[in-house]
Amino acid sequence: MRYFKIGCIAPILVLISINISLADIGIIVAFNSNLEQIKKSLKIKEISKKAGREFYSGKINNIDVVLVRSPMGKVNNAITAQALLSHYPITTVLSIAPAGSINKGLNIGDIIIATEVFQHDFGTIKPYGFIWSRVPDGTNRDEPGYNLADKRLRELALLYANNKKKTKNRIIEGIIVTGDQFISAQNKKEWLFKKFKAMAVDMGAGAIAQVCYANQVSFCILRIITDKAKIGARINFEKSIPGYQSDIDILKFVKGILQREYYYIQY
Description:
This protein is an alpha/beta fold. Helices cover 37% and strands 28% of the residues.
């Protein structure tokens, strides 16, 4: 009987010692302003520091969530995503961050739901120029790997977009390209469109997608346009740091996705 009690208690002690959260959905943001905005709706149960990041565990409308801000850059976002997935039982990752527009039809404040993501700065420098290659992810080159975003989550996001009140800014689907470069040059912008048919460019989506793919976790990438990736882009980008310049209620959009994903997970 004594051995039976020890056997029952041991797993509980292990759970307590590794401090497992009951959260299901992870949210990764880039701006402090966005972090603070979402925190206001989050009933925080615990704040923990891992890999130099602060993780906020709690509930949004009774949905278990872990919220974290990631510094910019592919490695930084990969560290954040892996720390999130390693320490919490996350089933879905929602990433919200800025991006520069590549497609001419986009305006500052529009939101892109990623259909595919590519890392545009991976390849070989030859004497005659740059030769792009797809980042290895364990799949064959003719197979979709980390690049393909989760269709169901995209549809959930579009469902909100199609039912929201009319706004000047739009929510649309498209390809996001990622690199450790802030794009502020017309020729680079044109190359990104020609090569990838990209809608927007950022510094984290590809890394987060690759980490999620490796961990078999669904992901949804949302990118808010902060600039047009040409001369003067930095000035426009900095205007968005205190808050995204969009007439779309981003918090309401996020809550809409969370609610629909929660019902999918539960039922």
